[in-house]
């Protein structure tokens, strides 16, 4: 675990917060509140990213302490910073996706009020 990434948690980070953020923001977008919907979805995605960074930090700390207890000196590969940056980049990418979907939904909701021949 100290010498490779945990793909299980990376997979969860790439799927769950995006789906959760979209599900939470959707009702706000349909009520013509895109800014509040985007804010809530951003809190979900960045909150999950922060939680995954803290989980990774605790896991690395536990593994390094175990190496020290065994009398070895261990260095994680990839480094802790790289692992944290991966989770932060995933959260940022999901937020960009949420904002892009928001623009599409906002345009559709706004055009819904016009007659088809005026669109």
Secondary structure layout:
Blueprint lengths: L6 H24 L3 H36 L10 H32 L8
Helix pairs in contact: 1-2, 1-3, 2-3
Overview of this structure, please?
By secondary structure, this protein is mainly α. It has 3 helices and no strands. It has one domain (7-109).
The low-confidence runs, each spanning 5 or more residues with pLDDT under 50, are none
Strand content: under 5%
Shape: rod-shaped
Instruction: Estimate nothing, just give the exact number of structural domains.
Output: 1
The secondary-structure element order is HHH
Short structural summary:
This protein is an all-alpha fold and 119 residues long. The chain has helices at 7-30, 34-69, 80-111. The protein is rod-shaped, with a radius of gyration of 20 Å.
Keywords:
mainly alpha, 119 residues, rod-shaped, 3 helices
């Amino acid at each position: 675990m100290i010498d490779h990434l945990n793909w299980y948690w990376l997979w969860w980070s790439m799927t769950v917060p995006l789906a959760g953020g979209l599900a939470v923001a959707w009702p706000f977008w349909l009520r013509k509140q895109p800014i509040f919907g985007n804010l809530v979805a951003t809190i979900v995605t960045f909150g999950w990213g922060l939680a995954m960074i803290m989980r990774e930090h605790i896991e690395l700390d536990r593994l390094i302490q175990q190496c020290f207890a065994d009398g070895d000196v261990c260095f994680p590969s990839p480094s802790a910073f790289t692992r944290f940056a991966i989770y932060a980049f995933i959260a940022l990418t999901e937020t960009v996706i949420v904002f892009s979907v928001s623009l599409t939904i906002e345009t559709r909701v706004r055009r819904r009020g016009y007659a088809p021949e005026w669109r």
